[in-house]
Design goal:
The structure is a single chain. By secondary structure, the chain is mainly beta. Strands 32-28-27-35-42-41-38-39 form an eight-stranded mixed beta sheet, with no helix packed on it. It is globular, with a radius of gyration of 27 Å. The relative contact order is 0.11.
């Protein structure tokens, strides 16, 4: 039996020494008690965020979390001199200055200097340099400075972006503290409603260390409806240093005995086996268990470009999240027409999706029609939030590709488990899983889930309201015209009437989703199966059944092969990685092959059946 993970919103704080002397997390915008100096007076490339006189601004980092940002990207190119100064701080014995920072693009990494004044906040008074960072890392990086020389003094601390023609610098969680143990959760979610059929549940989450001591262990406990505590020691793979995170999962699962509302208390303690003075360490949450629901597959729609420096970090961030959770998402990427001359694989249909959402910057991310932020700011918690959002629509999609005619046919079946109303449409995007031809100026050499064509177009297909239990089927097909051409840039886009930009036709797959176009909510999304070298009728006569779906322990493949051709069957994740494979040689006649999936974690997988040069790839859900 596979385990379903529950993620809980936790805000743990652990104190064993004095309270924080100073703390600023920018979650309420740029604080009025800080001083900001635009000492360069240059015009930013994006003046909407940084008008002249606004050297630092607040931007969403994740749900409920913001950060301070500064830019050195000016028109014309110039050097930044943008100051952010704390209010007066009086350090106490044991205090350290701590903060985390990140450059938005590794190839355009902003640097900065941290200075200190012992008199006032005038620029001339900052005569002590605490730290110089020539180029910050493109991942969040923690810094600490011992404040012992300034104990008992009134000091001001300045963060100064002094970069020349770079991009964007982020600063967050500035603290002066002596806390040896301090931790809190970051992006963790508790579903408000979920089906009992998806049990057992794993209580899981993520924490960040904001203390000076590296964490090597802690105890995680939970209780259900006031019952006995279920406690286990969590030992991170690597020590959790300041501002580093650890993802945890309680090894003891929870299976609710009935439907209803459950109160779940979760707490953490015994940090490094010695912390006994815990503060605000318990979070109480509720979840509604219903009889049944359908597993949601979150749709990630990414707006990006090979000419966009920050898109490197955005795509890198998504890849890390996808790689760590390879069976919990569906993705389509729209290559955009800017900055500069834009991406060679820009299409007008991608432009239509941009217009629909009102996208004005890249990289930009939508998750199930929501999130609406920078791809580099997406967290595992955002993925989990979407994955565990209750869903009532079962979907399957089958794509058949004819090699000789460059022709794709997509059949979609939608089966609602409840009535679903709204301004609903079905969207079908034919994507290429990896491209390399559209290399631009940002240093990326390969691109993934690149949209090539929408069927019938970007307007989608209008659907009637769903009635529970009544399946609905739709068919779309398309013939790619002409030969491959690599456009010079987005100003020279592909004309689908006479040409195409598909690099490898056998690398295509369909991404299919149902969306309420008024609210923008994506109801459900799936990757299609893929049949190559045979039509649907021939496929159904040879590969007669793949079941059960969803599967728990085994997947059965029933064949009726009348040719003396080699048969190979593989299980893959949606990154294309082969997890298991068996070569059966010639299997003639009626046969049943069983593949073991009991060791796979819950998620979406693909069964690939290859018979000679023909193959069929079918997505399955493992519970």
């Amino acid at each position: 039996m596979k385990k379903f993970t529950l993620l809980f919103v936790m805000a743990f704080a652990f104190i064993t020494m004095s309270a924080q002397t100073y703390s600023e997390n920018f979650n309420n915008g740029m604080p009025s008690n800080m001083r900001y100096i635009d000492n360069d007076g240059h015009t930013a490339k994006y003046p909407g965020t940084w008008p002249v006189g606004t050297p630092w601004a607040s931007m969403k980092r994740a749900a409920g979390d913001s950060m301070a940002i500064s830019t050195s990207y000016y028109v014309p190119a110039a050097t930044s001199d943008d100051w952010m100064i704390t209010p007066k701080i009086t350090p106490v014995t044991g205090d350290y200055l701590a903060w985390e920072a990140m450059a938005w693009a590794a190839s355009y990494a902003d640097g900065y200097v941290v200075k200190l004044s012992t008199t006032d906040s005038a620029m001339a008074s900052f005569t002590t340099t605490l730290l110089t960072v020539p180029a910050e890392q493109a991942d969040w990086t923690g810094h600490t400075i011992d404040m012992t020389p300034y104990v008992g003094q009134s000091v001001y601390i300045a963060f100064i972006n002094n970069s020349t023609d770079m991009y964007v610098l982020s600063i967050d969680n500035i603290m002066v503290m002596s806390n040896q143990f301090a931790a809190k959760a970051t992006s963790v979610i508790l579903p408000t409603k979920i089906g009992k059929n998806l049990a057992p549940f794993v209580i899981s989450g993520s924490m960040v260390n904001q203390g000076l001591t590296s964490l090597t262990s802690y105890e995680l406990s939970y209780s259900i409806n006031g019952g006995a505590a279920v406690t286990s020691t969590i030992t991170p793979t690597n020590a959790v240093n300041i501002y580093n995170s650890d993802n945890f999962s309680h090894p003891t699962t929870w299976t609710p005995t009935a439907t209803g509302i459950y109160t779940i208390k979760t707490w953490i303690g015994n940090l490094n086996g010695s912390n006994a003075n815990l503060l605000s360490d318990t979070v109480t949450s509720t979840v509604e268990i219903i009889a049944s629901s359908v597993q949601r597959n979150p749709l990630f729609e990414t707006f990006t470009s090979s000419t966009c420096g920050p898109c490197v970090n955005g795509n890198k961030n998504l890849k890390e999240i996808f790689d760590a959770n390879p069976n919990m998402w569906v993705c389509v990427k729209y290559q955009m027409s800017w900055p500069g001359d834009g991406d060679s694989y820009y299409t007008s249909e991608g432009g239509d999706r941009r217009t629909y959402y009102g996208v004005t910057s890249v990289p930009h991310q939508y998750i199930d029609g929501g999130f609406d932020g920078n791809s580099g700011s997406v967290t595992k918690g955002d993925l989990m939030d979407a994955y565990y959002n209750v869903c009532y629509l079962e979907m399957t999609a089958d794509m058949t590709y004819s090699v000789s005619g460059k022709y794709v046919s997509v059949n979609t079946t939608m089966t609602p488990a409840a009535d679903i109303n709204g301004n609903l449409k079905l969207f079908v995007a034919i994507v290429e899983k990896k491209t390399t031809g559209n290399v631009g100026s940002n240093g990326e050499t390969e691109f993934h889930w690149v949209m090539k064509k929408m069927l019938p177009d970007a307007n989608g297909t209008t659907l009637a309201n769903f009635t529970s239990g009544n399946a609905v089927s739709k068919h779309n097909d398309y013939a790619f015209n002409g030969n491959y051409r690599l456009p010079n840039n987005a100003k020279d886009p592909i004309d689908n009437a006479t040409e195409n930009s598909v690099e490898e036709f056998d690398d295509l797959i369909a991404v299919v989703w149902v969306q309420d176009v008024t609210t923008k909510e994506v109801i459900q999304a799936v990757f299609s199966s893929v049949t190559v070298g045979m039509d649907e009728a021939e496929r159904a006569s040879i590969i007669t059944n793949i079941y059960p779906n969803p599967a728990t322990d085994n997947v059965n493949i029933e064949l009726n092969n009348q040719t003396n051709e080699n048969v190979e069957i593989s299980i893959m994740n949606n990154l294309g990685q082969v997890l298991s494979s068996n070569n059966y040689g010639s299997l003639i006649g009626t046969q049943k092959v069983t593949m073991d999936v009991s060791n796979l974690v819950k998620g979406i997988y693909f069964v690939k059946v290859q018979i000679g040069e023909k193959y069929y790839v079918k997505p399955i859900q493992v519970n």
